[in-house]
Protein 1
Amino acid sequence: MAAALDEGSSLILFPEGGRNSSETSLLPFKSGLYHLARARPQVDLVPVWISNLNHVMPKGQIIPVPLICTLAFGAPITIDANETKEAFLARASASLLALSQNAVDQ
C-alpha cells in the first residue's frame, strides 16, 4: 500500500478488517491503518462514511447494487509524531463515528 501511495495512487481502506454484521456502528480498527500512517505520515487520510453500504455492496457480490447511498467526507487526518497506535486508531474511529452521526441527523 505504501508503494501505491508513493506512485500517486489513492487507496480505499476499510479499517475494521471485515464486514460489520453487528448492531454497532463500527468494529474496532485493525492496526494496518496505523502502520500505513506511520510509514507515510505526510499522507492525508480522509474519513468517509458510506450510508447504506451493506445494501449497495452485499457480502459476496463484486459489483455494487444500483441503490441510493450517501457519502459523508470528513476533514483529513494525519498521524501525530508521537501518537500511540491506540490513540491514533481511537481518533480515526471517532472521526468516522462523527460522520455517521451527521449522516443520521440529516
Protein 2
Amino acid sequence: MKNKNAKAVTIRAKMTIIIALFTAVMLTVIWLLFVVFLDDFYREAKYRELLSSARIIETHITADTSVLSDTIAELCRRTDENVLILRTTGSSTESISYVQPRDILSNSFAVAAIIESTRRDGGESSYTFDGSKNDFEMRGGAENDSMLFAKIIENGESSYVILINVQLTPVDATTTTIMSLLLILSVVFIVTAVIVGYIIAKTLSVPLTKLTATAKHIGTPEYKKLEGNPGCLETAELNETLSMASTELQKVEDLRREIISNVSHDLRTPLTMISGYGEMMRDIPGENNAENIQIIIDEAEHLNRLVNDLLSLSKLESGMDQLELREFNVTESLLALVGRYSTMRAVEGYALDFEYEKEYVITGDELKLIQVFYNLINNAINYTGESKRVLIKQAETTEDNKKYLRFDIIDDGDGILPENLPYIWDRYYKENRAHKRAGVGTGLGLSIVKKIIEQHGGKYGVISEPGKGSDFYIMLSL
C-alpha cells in the first residue's frame, strides 16, 4: 500500500520556499522600478515639474514685468529650467521675459513651429528633443535629451506664450550602477531569505514534530505532555489541548470499561437467576411453585428496567432524545404518581407524603419529568430507614432573582458521606467505587435525572448527612 504522505512537503521546506519566493518577487519589483522603468519615472517627474512651473508663471503673467522676472528667475534658479515668454498682439510678437536662453528656445524657427503645433493641440503641449537635431517630436522619444512645455494663454486681444525647457540627464550610467548594486543585493537577500526561512521553519517544525509523535499515543497511558519550550503560543496551546484531550479520552476509556463491567454484572445476575430457577423448576419435582415463578418475574422486570434505563441514558447523552415541551399541571401529575406508588407500596409498609400549598402549571416535557420524579422516589424508597417514610415537598423559591418551583424528595435513611456527594450523579457510582447490584435499582437513575434536568435548564442537588437521611431536590424555572 502506497504512503499517502509520500508527496507531502514538510513545513520546514515549505516555509523556506515561501520566504525565498517572497524575496525573489520583491527583488523583481525593485529591478523593474529601478532599471526598466527608471527612465520613464524620471521623464514623468520632469514633466510634472515643468507643468508646476507653468502654473506658477500663469498666475503672474499679467503682473508687473519686474515681479514676473523675479518669479521666473527664482524658478530657473531652483529647477535649472529655461523660460521664454512671448506676447502676441495681432500680427506682432514680442518677448517679455527670457531667462537662461539656450537650446531650442534660441531657435526662432523651432519656436514658431512649436507655437503653431501647440495651437493645434488646444493651447497646451509638451515635447522632447534630440540634441543632435533642430526638428522636434512629441514627448516620449527614446533618444531625446531635453523636454519642453508650451502653453498659450488668451487674454483679450493679446495672447501669451509660455515656453519652458529643461535638460534631461542621461540615466544610462545611473542604471548601470544600480544594476550592479541590485545584483549584489539580490544574491545577499536570497541567501539570507533561505537561511532565515530555514531557521524560522525549524523553530516551528521541531515542536510540531514532537507533538505529532506524542499525539500518536493520545488517550493511552503512554501519552506524555510535551515539556520545555513549546516554540510559540499556538504550539503551547495545541500542547495543552492535546493534553486535555488525552486526559478526557482516558476518562472516557476508563468509564467505558467500568460501564461494560457493571452492565455485564447486572445483566449476568438476573439472567443467571432466571436460567437457574427455570432449570430447577423443570428438573426438580415440586419446585414449580408460585414463589419460584415470582422470583423469575422479578428478575425479568429488573432486567427490563436496566435495558430501558441504558437506552434512555444513551439517547439523552447523544442528543437523540429531544424534549417535547408543553404546558401541564406538574402538581397534578406528581400527585397521581404518588398515589400509584402509595397503592403499590402500602402492602410493604411504605408511606409517601406529598406536601404542597397550590398547584402549578409549568412548561416542560411531562413524560421525562415524570421519569425524574419516578427515579427520585424510587431511590428514596430503596434507601429510606426503618420508618419506611418518604416525604415529597413542592414550594416556590427565588434564586439569583429568578423564580423556581422546587421539589424535595426526602428519606430518613443512612445518608451519604460528604466526600461522596459530588459523585453520586455519575453512572454506577457506589461508595468506595465498588459496584454491587442494587436490590431494585439499576444504578442509572440519578444520571438520567441529571441529564433531563439539564435539558430543561433547571437545577438539581442533594443535601445529606450520615445517619440523618438525604434530601434530593430539583428546581424547574417558572
Protein 3
Amino acid sequence: MPDTDITAQIAALAALDLRDLRSTWAERYGDPPALRSAPLLRQLLAWRLQAAAHGDLDRATRRQLQRKGSGEAEGLHLGIGARLTRVWKGRTHEVIVEPEGFSWEGQTYRSLSAVATAIAGSRWNGPRFFGLRSST
C-alpha cells in the first residue's frame, strides 16, 4: 500500500468513536483489546496499520521490550556522586546519585520520583521536578 493510503486510513480513525474503533479492530484483527479509551485504541490501530505497511519491530527491539524487570532509573546516567538541587518552598534540597539509587536526608530512594514525592508531599515526576526534563 502506498504511504498516502496508510496516511488516509490513519486519518480516518480520528472520526471513529470507541464502538466503531472496536468494530474496525474486530474486522481486521479479531477480538479487540479490552480498552475503554478511544484515543489509546486509535493509537494501537494506527500502529498496526503502519506495521503492516512498513514492517514490524525487528527481532532485537522485540527482545529488549520483552525483558523483564525495570530499566535503569532516570538520573542514574548522571554518575555516582552527582548532586541535584532543588529549592522547594524556600528550602534547598540536595539529592546525591548513589550506586543503589538517590540519597536525600540520609535515606536512599529507588527513583527521583520517590524523592520528589517525599519532598513535595504529593506525586511528582522526579526528572521534571529536578529539571532533567522540560515541563512541556
Protein 4
Amino acid sequence: MSESLEDEACNDEIHPPRPTFAAPPEDVLENAALMLSAAGDPARLRLLLRLADGERCVTELAEAEGEKLATVSARLKLLHGARLVTRRREAKHVHYSLTDGHIVSLVRDILEHAAEDTVSI
C-alpha cells in the first residue's frame, strides 16, 4: 500500500525554516477559549453587537431583543463572567458596556468575516 502525501515525513528541503512557536501561557489560552465560548451563541453575540454602540441598561436590551428581562440578564451574566462586558449599578438599573475596544473589534471582525461569500481553507 502506498503512503499518502500526508503520511510522508516533512524535511527541511520542502519548506524554509519556521520561527519557533511560542504559545501563550495555558491560563491565557483558557481565558481566550472561555471568551470565545461565551460569545459563541447568536443571542449573546447580538447583545455584544448592541453594546458595541455604547452602554445600555438591561431593560433597554431586553426590550430591543424582545426577550424577558431574566433571559437577557442571564446572558449578560455569562458575558460578564467571561470578561467581555462590564456593569455598573445606578439605583435599580444595571448598565452594561463592552470591556474595551478589543471586544468591539473582535465582534465586528468576526461578523464581517462570517458575511464573506467564500472561505478558502
